[in-house]
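Data deposition worksheet. Section B asks for the primary sequence of the deposited chain exactly as it was used as input, without tags or linkers unless they were present during the calculation. Section C holds the resulting structure in token form. Section D is free text for depositor observations; keep each observation to a single sentence. Incomplete worksheets are returned to the depositor.
Section A, Depositor: J.P.
Section B:
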Amino acid sequence: MKKKSVIELNRINVEQFKSTEKIPLIVILDDIRSLNNIGSVFRTADAFVVEHIYLCGITATPPHPDIHKTALGAEDSVSWSYEKDAASLVERLRMQGIMVCAIEQVFDSISLPDFKTEQGKKYAIVMGNEVKGVSQAVVDAADCSIEIPQCGTKHSLNVSISAGIVIWDFFKQLHK
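Section C:
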């Protein structure tokens, strides 16, 4: 096997990305402290053509060199905006018919492998703070909670890793 060169990857540019059809998925980052985590989620959102990212609460916004360090320019390709209050945003998105899923370990959560999307429906996932997770107010406002099954001793993943797993799962189901 031969590794592909950068040219052989056939990457699209930012303008082409902006006109590319996106999967019907919004990512909400609520109170994310790490600029590297924010940048990593931008990069994953670019890779899997996520429609939009909302940065909420204390989550930093581009431009910032530490976000750029891990986003590698994805902060310029992926559509994003800032909202102060994630719970209010979740309620507003739900009123627009978007199914909002908190990614959190809660009673009666849906295991990620059991979550099935519906064609024609739009989704939003909420990723919470690195220490406290998704706030109870946001969990209460969401349509459901999805939990990533884990078998080890920690039952905890880095928020950018969790986002990558969940975005990939949605991409597999929603990409045409």
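Section D:
The chain has a mean pLDDT of 97.
The longest strand covers residues 23-30.
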